[in-house]
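FW: tagging you since you asked about this chain on Friday. Here's the raw sequence from the shared folder, copied in full. Didn't touch anything.
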Amino acid sequence: MFQSFDTSANPAFGSARVALLRAELQARELAGFLIPRADEHQGEYVPPHAERLAWLTGFTGSAGLAIVLRHRAVVLVDGRYVLQVRDQCDPAVFEYASLIEPPPSAWLAAAVGAGDRIGYDPWLHTANEISRFAKAIEPAGAVLVPVEANLVDAVWADRPPAPLAAVELQPLELAGEPVDAKLARLAAALRAAKADAAVLTQPDSIAWAFNIRGADVPHTPLPLSFAILAADARPTLFIDGRKLSNAVRAELAAHADIAEPGRLLASVDALAGAGKAVLIDPDTAAIALAERVRASGGTVVEGKDPVMLPKARKNAAELAGTRAAHRRDGAAMANFLAWFDREAPKGELDEIAVATALERCRAATGELRDLSFDTISGAGPNGAIIHYRVSTASNRKVDRDNLFLIDSGGQYQDGTTDITRTLAVGTPTAAMARHYTLVLKGMIAISRLKFPKGTHGAHIDAFARAAMWAEGLDYDHGTGHGVGSFLSVHEGPQRISKLSTVPFEPGMILSNEPGYYRPGEYGIRIENLIVVTEAATPPGGERPMHGFETLTLAPLDRRLIVAALLTRAEVDWIDAYHARVQREIGPLVAAETANWLAAACAPLA
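HL: got it, structure written out here
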């Protein structure tokens, strides 16, 4: 199994652990300390030894921040986790607040006083993040203070060791571009940015640039590492040598110098001491690096991680791989959905049994390397918890006459998948079907959209919400995130959201996942992955156009579709989609699934 349903986080631990942290505050003459869910690489998934936020507070979501002051403490989360945080964190110890609006800096500014010194670990925060906090608390007379050793680590007695998973090479037939060609492109980008070098801190950028994969964090094939790229010299990869076999080391050494991570700062000092201009991404790199460059006499060039856009534009080999992965995954999903329809009405299933069954279906392909995230397996009201993670403590029976939400994905060496389906168990209410159809209309609107070159996520997010807005409804998450190629299931910089301003380019993969959530009753989300393609300019048109190709191949639940709410074009889209699903995965499903799939893909009209 690639997922566990146990949890080591416990709200009951919060009081004692915060007391230990406050003793450290007093010893270091600090008024407070910031505890983000982050490691020194600023990735979404962190290894167990960096799960400081979960250890301290009990909160296990993928994004969050705690601020512990002498007499107050708060856990800040985004809209996905407003219900989860209340279940996992002791309200006698922690307040709850928004991670987005108002931002955490506003909470801290209102809580501090003159002379307060707020500590932070400079390896766990970006330059832009610390700048926002510093500006916010300055009017109150408070200051931020970097600490050399993390205060949570000082009181975490049984902290796990750092991971040492083996690194493997990503074959050229799947990567689609050799390492030397990628490094040459990146070096040219540095020269264009007038930078002598760039420090890469995000392991997915390093994995892409060097065509390697690893297993240091859950569900994402990342080798935790750093790299320095140079405009006119060999790059250096900073990685624990115990992760490298002789064959992998030899391949990497053909393209870069190999050094232990402990040598990173000395190399930064050498660059800066020679007066070099070093590109560092203020949104993704730890502020410790930028401060080190400046302290050693170098110049910081603030700019985006130079790997992000090239990595986001999937090449032909990567797209061929992801299409193959989605056909394989779609067949596994169809086998699961057929099983669910047979078993759910019996009343014996629970959320863990459902998540386990889906993982078995993926594993039966013989190609599954991992899940792409812990399966969100939510019955009835648990489906309304946007990023719900079932545990043995929360495990709920599958309700009859209600909805079941299953959001899951697989990591295959040729591609990463992410799919959500909302399923009827028994007889859904009219309200359930209506809400499902409104969500479906939003998903179809994005799927069918044609848009001018240069369009970005903030331009099109409203298309997914329009049908719900017309009835006074909405959802508190973005409509879509970028997806990697056997890399992170949440990949930037492209997104479909109210805040995204990165133009869409051919080859970018995104999720398309509007939703609706009725707390305490049910949740609905429908998600397909899509890829940006070039589209023909209509007759008389004047602009180059783009569109989307749907990658995900699995039936929608026809029992929840209210055809009267759909336009003719929407019905045609559903029928064409189902015909394609039948055509592409029909030959791949188990024999006992074939009849179920044919019925599930039958035309609406």
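FW: The chain has a mean pLDDT of 96.
HL: agreed, and Residues 316-343 form the longest helix (28 residues).
FW: great, closing this out.
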